[in-house]
Amino acid sequence: MAESSTDGTHNALRVIEDLATIYANEQLFKHxxxxxxxxxxxxxxxxxxxxxxxxxxxxxxxxxxxxxxxNIRETILHEITHALVAPDVGHGQLWYEKLLEIGGTGIWVxxxxxxxxxxxxxxx
Length: 124
Ligand SMILES: [Zn+2]
Description:
The protein is an alpha+beta fold. It is built from five helices and five strands, in the order αβββαααββα.
């Protein structure tokens, strides 16, 4: 029996979510972030969030399953960077240098092709 396109899309999104979770967990392990975990949700417009108390990096299905793969990777590395530096560091020089060190770019490419860079990158 042929699979309907709805099921195909659903399955593809599940595969993307699974791959992103695998990648995120590999990054947690690679950077020694013991006790941290990955969770998904469907609320709001923020792509990701790093919660230090429960040691959870949450990823937004609504945003990330509707964007380029590079943005999913960037979001995961963005939140991993928060987990690696102090909670109150924000997105300044220290945070940005750590992001680049672990392979992030500070670049977000919108679906319409617009590109947004980290302010420290734009200043170069
Ligand atoms: Zn952030």
